Amino acid sequence: MSQERVVVSIEELVERAQQLRNYISQLESSLREITNTLAELEGAKRGIKEIESLSQDFMFYADKKGFLAVKAKELVKERVLVYIGLEYYLETDLKTAYNTLEIQGREIQKSAQAIQEELGKAVETYREITNILEQIRASTESKKSEGK
Fold it and tell me: What pLDDT, on the 0 to 100 scale, is given for residue 90?
């Protein structure tokens, strides 16, 4: 079996390394966003469990940081709205809402895993290219010092 040799310039290697660095940054950003979404989904699932245990009087926060709390006297626990994507919400019971969030979480986890795999491949390719560039640099410096 013969190996095909590919000839590329140093400039092309440097450009490819830069492209990979940008791609890695994009993947890392996507992974952070997905991780945050998974955390929010877990919070929503905890919220469902809390709703199930609420008494007549309760308080909830209208924002993530707790700057606005709302006190209420009555809560209709039978129906909730679950975001299902594309600006659509599903009105359903608590059990179905919880199950819907579980399914969304599994799908998002699959996406996170795919991004992690792609990130691993991109990082490995980037390392290979930077190793090649480092070898070229070392070889060039070695030849310069021999010529003196």
Answer: 86
What pLDDT is recorded for position 24?
A: 97
Beta bridge partners of 90: 82
Burial-class residue 97 by CB neighbours within 10 Å (0-12, 13-18, 19+).
buried
Q: Residue 116: which domain range?
A: 10-137
- On whether the CB atoms of residues 138 and 64 are closer than 8 A, the answer is no
| 24 part of a folded domain | yes
What is the C-alpha separation between 97 and 91, in angstroms, rounded?
A: 8
* Count: domains in the chain: 1
Residue 98: partners with Cβ closer than 8 Å, 6 or more residues away: 45, 48, 49
